[in-house]
């Protein structure tokens, strides 16, 4: 008697696999929602994560500014509510001056650019 109940329960559950068309539609929804949040100034490039997570879609937005700088944002798309939010811009990479020796033995500052990016330890 339990088999019919199990079959009914399985039939009522949504399929776990999605079609290519469904994923394309999802990516289009994420792009549309996130593009609407893009800053008005500058030129913005967007990269959509192809599948997102179980609950959210995600996109990276990079806005090139008039001063040749760039702001980086993350757009989070709620799959259930079909709404999106944009993070504040990440901080700009900082210029760092480090002493470096030339082949002649002179010490000169060497400028590099760094962010707070670091390796994640599992």
Describe the structure.
- With 122 residues, the chain is an alpha+beta fold.
- 22% of the residues lie in helices and 36% in strands.
- It is built from 2 helices and 6 strands.
- The strands form 2 sheets. The chain has a 4-stranded antiparallel beta sheet, with helices on one face. Strands 5-6 form a two-stranded antiparallel ribbon.
- The N and C termini lie far apart (47 Å).
- Residues 5-16 have low confidence and may be disordered.
N-to-C series of helices and strands: HHEEEEEE
Spatial arrangement of strands, main beta sheet:
1-2-3-4
* Low-confidence sequence ranges: 5-16
Beta percentage is 35-45%
User: What is the CA-CA span between the terminal residues?
Assistant: 47 Å
Rg calc = 23 Å
Q: Based on Cα principal axes, name the global outline.
A: elongated
For the largest beta-sheet, the strand count, sense and barrel status come to:
4 strands, antiparallel
What would the average pLDDT be, to the nearest integer? 81
Tell me the number of helical segments per DSSP (H or I, 4 or more residues long). 2
By DSSP, the count of extended strands is 6
- State the secondary-structure class: alpha+beta
As a percent range, the share of helical residues equals 10-25%
Task: From the structure above, extract its key features.
single chain, 122 residues, alpha+beta, four-stranded antiparallel sheet, two-stranded antiparallel ribbon, 22% helix
């Amino acid at each position: 008697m339990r088999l019919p109940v199990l079959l009914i329960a399985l039939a009522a559950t949504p399929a776990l696999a999605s079609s290519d068309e469904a994923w394309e539609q999802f990516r289009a929804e994420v792009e549309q929602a996130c593009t609407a949040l893009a800053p008005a100034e500058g030129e913005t490039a967007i990269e959509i994560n192809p599948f997102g997570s179980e609950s959210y879609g995600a996109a990276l937005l990079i806005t090139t500014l008039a001063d040749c700088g760039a702001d980086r944002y993350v757009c989070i798309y709620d799959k259930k509510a079909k709404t999106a939010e944009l993070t504040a811009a990440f901080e700009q990479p900082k210029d760092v001056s480090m002493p470096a020796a030339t082949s002649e033995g002179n010490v000169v500052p060497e400028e590099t650019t760094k962010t707070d990016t670091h390796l994640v330890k599992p």
